[in-house]
Amino acid sequence: MTILMANLCPSIKMLYYKLFNVDVGLWVFLIVNLPDFRLAQIMIFAIEEINRSEMLLPNVSIGYQIYDTCSSRMSSMSATMGLMNGPEFAAGETCNGQSSIHAIIGETESSATVILSRTTGPFKIPVISHTASCECLSNRKDHPSFFRTISSDYHQSRALAYIVKHLGWSWVGAVNSDNDYGNYGMAIFLNTAQKEGICVEYSEKFYRTEPEKLKKVVDTIKKGTTKVIVAFVSFIEMGLLIDQLNILNITGLQIIGVEGWITSKSLITPKSFQVMGGSLGFALRKINLEGFSDYVVKAFWETAFPCTQIKENSSQYVINCSRYQDLLALKNYNEDVPEQRYSSHVYKAVYAVAHSLHSLLKCKEQEGCEKGLTIQPQQKPSSICSESCLPGTRKAAQKGRPVCCYDCIPCAEGEISNETGNLTQCPGEYWSNAEKNKCVLKAVEFLSFTEVMGIVLVFFSLFGAGLTVLVAILFYRMRDTPIVKANNSELSFLLLFSLTLCFLCSLTFIGQPNEWSCMLRHTAFGITFVLCISCLLGKTIVVLMAFKATLPGSNVMKWFGPAQQRLSVVAFTLIQVLICVLWLTISPPFPHKNMKYFKEKIILECSLGSTISFWAVLGYIGLLAVLCFILAFLARTLPDNFNEAKFITFSMLIFCAVWITFIPAYVSSPGKFTVAVEIFAILASSFGLLFCIFAPKCYIILLKPYQNTKKHMMGKNIF
């Protein structure tokens, strides 16, 4: 069994014809292009190697035909039609219309391969290309029988964008060949570059037969501001572009290239090095094929120099080939002979056909590239539209320009930017520092014992408590005098005790809030003040009842004696205790971090929990205070030398005034000043009660003791 293979080469400039086991021995010598000659020889080498193998395709011989397309699409089409139609003259007794070609290796260029694949596709003739990398050929609908041994440009195009970003370039230019290879490859690069945040200053294209477009491309590069150019062009277009850049002396460029030209030594000259020196790109892996070097040297030597080898049994004249020849004498000699990057792909293409026929084709997953490559800054030029923003500043887009062009403005409060230039919002409990390059913990604010305001309030609280204790001691020492015994001394001592608690409860409002202090401060305040006002209310009722008792036939005092007075105080206080217990049970106060008043700091405060319960406590205190004020106001003119009613009236007037002004001040004061206002209200009302109720009595006891007698107590207008 014999299998026939075809190979289409772009510019070998020679034709070798071999059909099955018939050696025609015909050589037509024109101009030798060594790289393309090498690709043709690698196919022959692989086919002969397979034909000698006993393991692969045993009893099957592979033949081949090689056509020169002269880098022309028309020639490629003509060769393709010739392959499918078969030879014009065929030896043999029978002929049929079926094509004798089972597989085609080629073409080299993507555009020519597209034509070839679309022509052979309807006939299911497989085409295996070793260099056609255009992504368009991956479309199975348009190219159902196309295969290749080189990767698609989809991967290379994306990799070009990734390497540009890895090197820190965000402002590049783009040039591509105006054919399928360049257009599809550049489209993928531009799409990936946009996703990666890379800005493209210009994107130009030209073809080898369009000098005007080439001139436009060179002018664009010359006028552009970017120093990095991504050149997705073929080998021929790259040579033309470099020549023009050399002529105009356009240097200092960093060119990012593709596998089509990046490893070509023929493009490197002393002049072109100024343009493309330091170019980067992705190259195909070199693979040495055992035995091929000797094979191709022998074939090249016999082809390049004027010597012809025919069969030894032929009677024709034989010109012996010399071992020593001058390679420089060859016209268009190309020294890229050692380049073996594409050779292995031709070799693999032939073996792919063989293995597919043998049903042994297996795909081995390739390993990825090494990661973590670090490029030193001195090895690469800078190509950006705008410099990276310094820490503490952020990017502000320039109107009408790409996203890579921006101004750097200071970050707003609560925002930072680090070395990468990324804007970051500080988390809830953090705030930006002065340099706007780091998030730091927000300052925590609460009324502490160490600050001036806290010290002053603590002083007045302790001073009030101490003063109340001194009054209690004075009253205890003078407990047998008429002025102390008057109007129920028990209520007076209970009132002094409750006032002491009122002064001391203000201390619970100072310091860092915690769970226990939050529950204690409001409940202690509510209960102690109710106890205090209950005592005053009891004393006021005693005054009224005492006046009523002096009337003929009155018997009211027996209904409001000492026992009833104590019971009334306990009853009024228990109601407030019940309200506080319900408050602590249902929704107690708790420590809270308030970040609404100030963005740059955290206010540590006690949340009320149940707002209704808080206002119920205040409302009950206010109700008792108003009731006490009304009763005291009614009793202020009663005929008694030691009438406490008017002093209770003044004290309740001060108390109500303080707490009425407290409400708007409490609501409008921010942060720790809210606590300070509440403490001030507690201390002011406590001092008001202490001075209004007990100052007149202390004045008599200490400064006018002669009036502290029963006789004077029964007199008129002492006060």
From TrEMBL:
Which PROSITE patterns does this one have?
A: G_PROTEIN_RECEP_F3_3, G_PROTEIN_RECEP_F3_4
Q: Main subcellular localization, coarse class?
A: membrane
What region holds the G-protein coupled receptors family 3 profile domain? Answer: 453-717
The record lists the membrane-crossing segments as 452-476, 491-511, 523-547, 567-586, 612-635, 647-667, 679-703
Quote the subcellular location field of this record. Cell membrane
**What's the protein's topology in the membrane?**
Multi-pass membrane protein
Protein name per Swiss-Prot or TrEMBL: G-protein coupled receptors family 3 profile domain-containing protein
- UniProt organism field: Cyprinus carpio (Common carp)
